[in-house]
Structures are given as structure tokens and as C-alpha cells.
């Protein structure tokens, strides 16, 4: 599939209306890095750092992590890389972590909740990231933020580590961006100050959708009941984009749905200018984005919403058909 789209690799995802969508890739393992060149990704929008922890039998050491993150940054050759701090718990259980006896792990002690309650590993990770930059820029985001205070506290850990590294005589990154993943519906309704404080926001659509529809993302039977192009979900996305626009906060979407062409087209029409996806999706998504006028897509979406449709998928597919697809 990659080959079919190779002509597009160095072309921008510019739609007929003139809007260019930035297409980034998701990664987490060293094996993903060659895709940075092959896929035409403009950078890494989500580096899932927990994957490095999941493939080991014990907690990696700081030096090891710093070397690894430095390799990722080098492979990116100046393109942006957004590192997400450890997102464990729920479906991602570390072999060396005491199993938690929780009736509902997806709603349990996971991700930033672990990071804030037991900050040792997260802080070590932040130190490793700072050292890995070797003076270059750094973008870090925290997973599973559900309320403003969690972001404030996580961000403070980063600021403390920067101060500590400075005192230890390490060179600091030239620029540090601290962002939040928006993957619980509550965060979409946080105070304005949260959006002001966040340097950027990345919508984690896999979890956001799971919690919005109360449907387990791992459970096909219930997951498939709820279309991502459901008007309620799109209205939530629209709300998030509007809140980010109010404060000038850059916002992207990094869940699996960003890699599905019709979904990606829909998100772009709702105002998302950055999408991060698995590398093999970049070609197909770019191909569709380049052929459509996003203003027309938005009109189709708005008309479908006004008609009382549950999802805008049928209307979009019909419209694509009428446009010669
Ligand atoms: C998400 O929830 O959409 C996301 C990108 O994070 P993960 O799939 O790793 O939970
Ligand atoms: Mg998630």
C-alpha cells in the first residue's frame, strides 16, 4: 500500500480549499523509526513511551532511556517528536508492577494517576528526555488528564526537573512544550485557564470515544455500535477545537481514527489541522485530503447533522460517490 502512494510522499496534504493538514505518525518502538522517511510523516505526533517499558523484564534505567530517546530525536532529523509519558495500567500492565486488584481497570489507577501518586518513574523519564535533547527542543505530553489540577501538577514535575537538571549542570532544551492528551470527556469542559496553560493538546480519540459512549474499546461487540462519525462525537470534537481556538492552543488528533481516510477528512473539516496516525495510513489519508474541498465536506456534515442523522457517514459516502469516487 505504501508504494501506491509513494508519489505523494513528499507532497503536502493540501485540500482543494487551500487548507493544509499536517500528517504525523504514531510510534513507540525503534522498529517504527524507518517509517519516518518512508511514510512522508512530518514528524511523530505520539511517541508511546510505555512500549519500551512493556517489552522489558525490569524498569529501564535513566541512561538507557536517555540514549533511546536521543536515537528517536536523531532519526527525526529536526522534525517534531511528541513524547507521551508512561501510559500504563488498564490494558497496559507492566510485568514488574504489582498487579492492582481493580474491578474496572480502564477507569482505574492508570496513566497520569500513577504518575502523580508515585512520581519516581515519571520523573526519571522526564530527566531522560531532557538529557536526550542535548540542547534541542522538547515536546512532552501527559496521558489521561481528566481535570486541570492533574495537568498543573504534571507540568510542575517537568518544571522541577528542568530546574534540577540545570543545577546539575546539564544543558537544557532550547524550547520546552508541555501538552496534555484530551482523552476523557471532562477535560473538554475544563476552565479556560487549562487551555491557556497547555502548550498544545492532543485528542486521544481511542479513549475519548470509549468514555464518551461508555463502550469498551477492547470489546468489538459494543465498540462497533458507536460510529466515530456519530454527530454527538463530532460535536464534541467541534467543541474541543473551538475551545482551543479561543486560547490559540494548538490541537491535534492522535487516535486510530485519524488514520481512516473518511474520519480524517471529517476531522480536518471540523478544523483539526494536525493528525497523527500509523505510518501506513499517511498515504491513503493524504490521497483523500488532497482531492476534497473541506468547506464542502463541512457543508455535508452540517446538513446531515441538521437532518437528525445519527452518523454523517452515509451522507459523506454518498457525497464522495456523487463527486466521482
Ligand atoms: C488514544 O487513547 O486515542 C491514544 C492515542 O492513546 P492509546 O491508544 O495509547 O491509549
Ligand atoms: Mg489513550
UniProtKB/TrEMBL annotation:
Keywords: Cytoplasm, Kinase, Magnesium, Metal-binding, Phosphotransferase system, Sugar transport, Transferase, Transport. GO terms for molecular function: kinase activity; metal ion binding; phosphoenolpyruvate-protein phosphotransferase activity. Belongs to the PEP-utilizing enzyme family. GO terms for cellular component: cytoplasm. GO terms for biological process: phosphoenolpyruvate-dependent sugar phosphotransferase system. It is found in: Cytoplasm. The chain holds residues 424 to 748 of 750 of the full protein. The keyword rRNA processing does not apply. This is phosphoenolpyruvate--protein phosphotransferase.
Amino acid at each position: 500500500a505504501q508504494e501506491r502512494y509513494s508519489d505523494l510522499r513528499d507532497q503536502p496534504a493540501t485540500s482543494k480549499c487551500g487548507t493544509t493538514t499536517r500528517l504525523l505518525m504514531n510510534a513507540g518502538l525503534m522498529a517504527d523509526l524507518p517509517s519516518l522517511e518512508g511514510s512522508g510523516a512530518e514528524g511523530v505526533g505520539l511517541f508511546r513511551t510505555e512500549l519500551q517499558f512493556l517489552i522489558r523484564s525490569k524498569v529501564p534505567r535513566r541512561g538507557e532511556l536517555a540514549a533511546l530517546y536521543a536515537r528517536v530525536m536523531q532519526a527525526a532529523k529536526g522534525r517534531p517528536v511528541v513524547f507521551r509519558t508512561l501510559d500504563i495500567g488498564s490494558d497496559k500492565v507492566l510485568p514488574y508492577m504489582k498487579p492492582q486488584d481493580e474491578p474496572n481497570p480502564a477507569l482505574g489507577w492508570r496513566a497520569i494517576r500513577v504518575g502523580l501518586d508515585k512520581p519516581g518513574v515519571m520523573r526519571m523519564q522526564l530527566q531522560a528526555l531532557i538529557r536526550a535533547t542535548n540542547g534541542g527542543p522538547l515536546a512532552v505530553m501527559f496521558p489521561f488528564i481528566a481535570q486541570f489540577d492533574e495537568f498543573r501538577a504534571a507540568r510542575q514535575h517537568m518544571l522541577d526537573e528542568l530546574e534540577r537538571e540545570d543545577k546539575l549542570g546539564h544543558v537544557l532544551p532550547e524550547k520546552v512544550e508541555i501538552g496534555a492528551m484530551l482523552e476523557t470527556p471532562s477535560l473538554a469542559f475544563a476552565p479556560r485557564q487549562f487551555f491557556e496553560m497547555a502548550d498544545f493538546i492532543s485528542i486521544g480519540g481511542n479513549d475519548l470515544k470509549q468514555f464518551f459512549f461508555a463502550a469498551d474499546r477492547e470489546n468489538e461487540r459494543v465498540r462497533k455500535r458507536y460510529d466515530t462519525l456519530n454527530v454527538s462525537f463530532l460535536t464534541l470534537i467541534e467543541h474541543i477545537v473551538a475551545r482551543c481556538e479561543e486560547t490559540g492552543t494548538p490541537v491535534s488528533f492522535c487516535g486510530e481514527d485519524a488514520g481512516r481516510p473518511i474520519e480524517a477528512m471529517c476531522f480536518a473539516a471540523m478544523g483539526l489541522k494536525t493528525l497523527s496516525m500509523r505510518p501506513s495510513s499517511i498515504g491513503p489519508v493524504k490521497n483523500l485530503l488532497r482531492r476534497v474541498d473541506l468547506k464542502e465536506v463541512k457543508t455535508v456534515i452540517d446538513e446531515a447533522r441538521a437532518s437528525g442523522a445519527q452518523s454523517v457517514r452515509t451522507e459523506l459516502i454518498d457525497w464522495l460517490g456523487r463527486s466521482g469516487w
